[in-house]
């Protein structure tokens, strides 16, 4: 078990705007993990990057090291947009993220897969060891429980479905022509929601046409669907009543020039003839596109009304999930404590084993020759029995002390067995944290770390 503590920092849809999220987004999750691991004393790292959040978790000997690494990671981002948390709050937040409680769409399903993918990326980059292994797998477990045991994901369950709902408030989707730009997971969800809403024609545009064709094939029975390359946007975008963009492009893919003629069909000044919902991160739609009079552009921030309605509908389920997270967090804290206590106890037994072996050899040498070999098994068995019987009561007491976060007692007891124990003390950072911050409560998985004010 790692002897460090978890520190995390994040920029999310709640703390920053679309542009700040774009600036914080790494080129790849694995690459970001590798970058964090180059910082001295950072033992583990995990990075979750989606269209609504960039979160980084690191394990270091203390929070000062973790915070320094994360400040560098988010350098250039407005300080007000970056939320930094210490051990307990970081772990609890990760559980809430996987359960969908921190999503734009409360309880949405997409995030659990993203948490799992980020875990695989971090593991491939050698960023996952015992502490984050326990934390992230616990988060995935909580996310799965939340969705199978509660109604947290009923109704609008993704940004794709929220985009369709937002568009439908402006113009009827039944019988409409829709364009989805981007054939990734978000594009799939948007296309599925638009098809379910009754659009007559659905065009999927993508840089790689084969991917668009593959996605279009999934909806052939629900609408007239076809694929198109991105360079055909000037043709297909003008004809669409609804456009949903969800690409991974670094630059806008939809410009006002793609919508020339959009005003031609507007009978009334100010009438909305075309709705565009930009789910891209960074933006897929050039800001000046909203100036086209017959076009109404919505971005991630504009989905707030949809998400608030969903939040109200799922309030009861959210309370159930919060209670579930409380219990699972306690179990995670206990898991860390047991592992750290067992590591300390193992060190105690190793010390006792060295003394036992030395004394056994001394006793056998005094017996000498054939007598020593004849009685070796008996002497060793007696020594083992003495060690086990002598260490059984302190082992029980040490585990109880660890369960109560009494790491000072654990440290003192271990030093009684071996005055040199402190040289490789697996709980010394925990004792130091307790001395600095005061005695933590029994639910504090960080063993002395404090949450942000």
TrEMBL record:
This is Glutamyl-tRNA reductase. The keyword Oxidoreductase applies. Catalyzes the NADPH-dependent reduction of glutamyl-tRNA(Glu) to glutamate 1-semialdehyde (GSA). GO terms for molecular function: glutamyl-tRNA reductase activity; NADP binding. The record marks 93 as: Important for activity. Homodimer. NADP(+) binds at residues 182-187. Residues 320-418 form the Tetrapyrrole biosynthesis glutamyl-tRNA reductase dimerisation domain. Substrate binds at residues 50-53, 103, 108-110, 114. Pathway: Porphyrin-containing compound metabolism; protoporphyrin-IX biosynthesis; 5-aminolevulinate from L-glutamyl-tRNA(Glu): step 1/2. Residues 420-453 are annotated as: Disordered. One of its GO terms (biological process) is protoporphyrinogen IX biosynthetic process from glutamate. PANTHER family: GLUTAMYL-TRNA REDUCTASE (PTHR43013:SF1). It comes from the Archaea. The active site is at 51 (nucleophile). Keywords: Coiled coil, NADP, Oxidoreductase, Porphyrin biosynthesis. Its EC number is 1.2.1.70. It catalyses: (S)-4-amino-5-oxopentanoate + tRNA(Glu) + NADP(+) = L-glutamyl-tRNA(Glu) + NADPH + H(+). Residues 11-150 form the Glutamyl-tRNA reductase N-terminal domain. It comes from Natrinema salifodinae. During catalysis, the active site Cys acts as a nucleophile attacking the alpha-carbonyl group of tRNA-bound glutamate with the formation of a thioester intermediate between enzyme and glutamate, and the concomitant release of tRNA(Glu). The thioester intermediate is finally reduced by direct hydride transfer from NADPH, to form the product GSA.
């Amino acid at each position: 078990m790692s002897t460090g503590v978890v520190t995390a920092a994040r920029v999310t849809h709640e703390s920053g705007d679309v542009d700040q999220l774009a600036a914080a987004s790494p080129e790849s999750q694995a690459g970001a993990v590798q970058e964090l691991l180059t910082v001295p004393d950072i033992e583990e790292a995990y990075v979750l990057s989606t269209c609504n959040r960039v979160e980084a978790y690191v394990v270091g000997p203390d929070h000062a090291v973790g915070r320094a690494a994360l400040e560098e990671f988010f350098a250039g981002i407005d300080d007000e947009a970056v939320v930094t948390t210490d051990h307990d709050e970081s772990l609890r937040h990760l559980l809430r993220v996987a359960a969908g409680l921190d999503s734009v769409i409360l309880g949405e399903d997409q995030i659990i897969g993203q948490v799992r993918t980020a875990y695989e990326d971090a593991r491939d980059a050698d960023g996952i060891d015992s502490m984050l292994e326990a934390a992230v797998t616990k988060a995935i477990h909580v996310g799965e429980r939340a969705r199978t045991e509660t109604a947290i994901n009923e109704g609008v369950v993704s940004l794709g479905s929220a985009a369709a709902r937002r568009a439908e408030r402006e113009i009827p989707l039944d019988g409409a022509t829709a364009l989805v730009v981007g054939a990734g997971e978000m594009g799939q969800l948007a296309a599925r929601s638009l098809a379910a809403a009754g659009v007559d024609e659905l065009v999927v545009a993508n840089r790689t046409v084969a991917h668009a064709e593959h996605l279009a094939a999934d909806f052939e029975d629900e609408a007239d669907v076809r694929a198109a390359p991105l360079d055909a946007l000037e043709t297909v975008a003008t004809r669409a009543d609804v456009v949903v963009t969800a690409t991974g492009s670094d630059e806008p893919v939809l410009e006002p020039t793609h919508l020339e003629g959009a005003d031609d069909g507007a009978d009334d000044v100010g009438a909305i003839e075309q709705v565009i919902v930009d789910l891209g991160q960074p933006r897929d739609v050039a800001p000046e596109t909203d100036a086209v009079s017959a076009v109404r552009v919505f971005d991630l921030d504009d989905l707030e009304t949809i998400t608030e309605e969903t939040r109200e509908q799922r309030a009861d389920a959210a309370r159930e999930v919060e209670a579930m997270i409380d219990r699972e967090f306690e179990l995670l804290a206990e898991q860390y404590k047991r592992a750290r206590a067992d590591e300390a106890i193992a060190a105690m037994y190793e010390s006792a084993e060295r003394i036992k072996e030395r004394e056994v050899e001394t006793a056998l040498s005094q017996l000498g020759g054939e007598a020593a070999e004849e009685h070796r098994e008996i002497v060793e068995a007696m020594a083992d029995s003495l060690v086990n019987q002598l260490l059984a009561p302190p082992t029980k007491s040490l585990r109880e002390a660890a369960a109560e976060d009494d790491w000072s007692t654990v440290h003192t007891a271990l030093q009684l067995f071996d005055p040199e124990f402190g040289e490789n003390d697996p709980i010394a950072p925990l004792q130091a944290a307790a001395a600095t911050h005061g005695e933590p409560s029994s639910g504090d998985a960080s063993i002395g770390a404090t949450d942000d004010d």
